[in-house]
Amino acid sequence: MANFDYDLFVIGGGSGGVRAGRVAASLGKKVAIAEEYRYGGTCVIRGCVPKKLFVYASHFSESFEDAGGYGWTVDAPRFDWPTLIANKDREIARLEGLYRKGLDNAGATIIDSRAELVDAHTVEIKQTGERVTAERILIAVGGFANPHAALPGHELCITSNEAFHLETLPKSILIAGGGYIAVEFANIFHGLGVETTIIYRGKEILGRFDHDMRSGLHEAMEAKGIKVLCQDVFSSIERSDDGRLSAHTSSGKVLKADQVMLALGRDPNTKGLGLEAAGVETNHKGAIVVDDYSRTNVDNIFAVGDVTDRVQLTPVAIHEAMCFVETAFKNNPTKPDHDLIATAVFSQPEIGTVGLSEDEAARSHKELEIYRAQFRPMKHTLSGRQERMIMKIVVDAKDRKVLGVHILGPEAGEMAQIVAIALKAGATKDDFDRTMAVHPTASEELVTMYRPSYRVRDGERVDP
Ligand code: NDP
To answer: Could you tell me if the CB of 202 is within 6 A of ligand 1?
Structure first.
């Protein structure tokens, strides 16, 4: 058998790579991991974690407003952007340290450099030019924000990367896109007092979500003052004489703002990685093609996470990494399970969802029972806030199996996590019905909707 320097070489120190490297090393395998930027990857360094900290920051403006109805007087609160950035950076540095420590404690060799494939078993460490060999290689290099290079003036725009490090908070911002990042940042900036406009090419924001979540959130965002422009796109961006940016849209509008942010999807980070040299196949988007076990067409090379463009979510990358370790090092071939992935959009109000939307379910099931409630959460009664919560349960009429649960409102993400366990266990609507409510909560509505609001038969809505 050939002698290799390492049992496993991991390229990419994000959620998937670090998990796989740490767990494989803790099994006694000789592991090296290389990262060109900072350990923690998109999620920790410039994604989920700093984003959620910004979400918390942006919630305070509404909390101060709501406090009045409960008897509190909050005199002219002021917000200081540099304080938020500095505190956020400190927390990210702490988390990065934990990621490194975990790898170190497990005995992995940590390499602070870009690494590229030379052949199927050889990796070049770019900073030193050293070449090392490994029996198995895991590619977990993630993705990057699509710069939308076809847009004239795209170089004047920021992406989520820069949004985490702006020196000053803009007074106004235009955000292109209608996905997770566009919607979350629109709510963050608005909550921090920035005049915010979002522009989306489709009919309604958040294309892949249930239609009630999409329209409910759209209405709530507009009601609080975020401009939402649908069926339009930027055609060019220019710097005006006054230093601000002018964005021209395909419908002829000219919008002005201090910053323009592009949130138009993320692309796999595979350029220049040496995939051709190693014979690793990619698809038309540059994503690495893998089989059900995250194995590429080259037998000893695997890939997990965003670089494979399966489901671009941190917990999915971590799960794929754990399955990879089972498959590659524990003689227990394990396929990642991508069914019923719960997810949240940290907008205001938040969306939490698991399973099929009504429209998806209608395409694959003959008859559905739809349970839908729309109500003002109790907290908003004294605060006077008009925002409504929406809860929706999509049920297969044939066997009453719950196919999807969709929630718009405070803590929807937290609820989606819990309800996902029930769906994963195959819960029926009868199981929901015989579950005692927790009172008074908003989530009790999920177990007290006894009669369908309507049915969907052969794709058509009919009365219950
Ligand atoms: P998304 O795929 O969610 O959204 C991309 C948006 O850009 C869509 O609205 C898409 O429109 C639009 N778009 C794409 N290309 C163009 C174009 N050429 N012109 C105009 N519009 C265009 O990507 P994001 O960048 O928002 O996020 C990347 C990924 O990161 C997400 O898929 C998600 O998995 C993950 N993420 C998860 C979060 C969470 O879990 N809370 C938070 C942030 C990111 P259309 O809908 O018409 O295709």
So the answer is: yes
183 lines ligand 1 (CB under 6 A): no
Nearest to 15 by CA among 52, 41, 50: 41
Ligand 1 center–CA 176 separation, angstroms: 10
Task: Give 34-44 pLDDT, tens digit per residue.
Answer: 999 999 999 99
| Burial readout 252-287 (b: 16 or more C-beta within 10 A, e: otherwise) | eeebebbbbbbbbbbbbbbeebbbeebebebeeebb
Over the stretch 243-266, which tens digit does the pLDDT of each residue have?
Answer: 999 999 999 999 999 999 999 999
> Quick one: which atom of ligand 1 is closest to the CA of 202?
47
Minimal CA–CA distance to 369: which of 391, 400, 338? 400
3-class SS of residue 304 = coil
Tens-place pLDDT, residues 205-220: 999 999 999 999 999 9
DSSP β-bridge partners for residue 119: 122
- Residue 196 CA to residue 414 CA, distance in Å, equals 27
Which pLDDT value is given to residue 464?
Answer: 82
Global pTM value: 0.97
* Residue-range domains of the chain with CATH: 6-145+267-329 (3.50.50.60), 154-264 (3.50.50.60), 343-462 (3.30.390.30)
Say how far apart CA 297 and CA 124 lie, in whole Å: 21
How far apart are the C-alpha atoms of 94 and 82, rounded to whole Å? 18
In this structure, which residue's CA is closest to atom 7 in ligand 1?
264
Determine whether 211 is an active site residue: no
Beta carbon of 314 within 6 Å of any ligand 1 atom? no
Helix (H, G, I), strand (E, B) or coil at 210: coil
Residue 460 has pLDDT above 70, yes or no: yes
Res. 105 pLDDT band, cuts 50 70 90: very high
Tokens 């790579």 correspond to 17
Query: Of all protein residues, whose CA lies closest to atom 14 belonging to ligand 1?
Result: 264
pLDDT at residue 1 in the model:
55
Which residues, in sequence order, are CB contacts of 369 under 8 Å at separation 6+? 395, 396, 397, 400, 429, 452, 455, 464
